[in-house]
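Lest this sound abstract, we let one protein speak, letters for residues, whole numbers for local backbone shapes, and leave readers to judge:
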Amino acid sequence: MRAIARTGARAAAAAAAAGLSVAGGLAACQGASEKRSFEACEAIGDGFRAAVWAKRHENITVLEPENDQIGRLLTALRDRRTTGADFRQIADRLMSLLFELALASVDTDEVTDDASILAEALRRTMGDVEVCKVTCDDTSKAVTDSSSLPADLSERDLVLVLVPVMNDHHRCEHLVEALTQRGVDAGSIVVVALTMSPDVADKLSKIEGGAIGVVSATIDSGVDHRGFLMPGLGVFHERYGE
């Protein structure tokens, strides 16, 4: 997980959902017992249902319904036939586009971090940035090392928490807690992700009383019996490193 400290105005807004079709995609890769078709952001729905979801998640911005290019890139990444250099190229483009759209209104200054894949995409998008590592325990999800975070973190106007795939809210919750304990205002924290489960979105809408901002490329339909997101992106870091 990584945290990015920046200077500028906070990005916010809620989004309604639309209905882009995507293939069942990575079901086999994720170990699911059955394959089916999914609609983009089907957990949010559309029309009145989407409006209710947006009202209940006012701190969360979902970009896929508003951007056809993000939908196409996600569909390509979900296809288990997309491997190797093709997967990395599409993932890099999606992450760069996600940062461009999520941070368009934010003047950037400095950054802190922990997951190399998103960090590289962020550098390409934002140019020269300061990167600091934060690590979490794989079992408890608790922060085990945040010593490289800048001493003046509490003075930053915006702190971004970057997570590729969120099927569990605990790691992010622990990092947000570590940041607030260092004096970072909860209203200055924005979580940026490629995808997350509906349950994670629900939890993030309540952390610190809903004060943190969240920007995600999409919201997946749920998780399977093994805890994998469905339709998901497979084991993202393994596919990216193929």
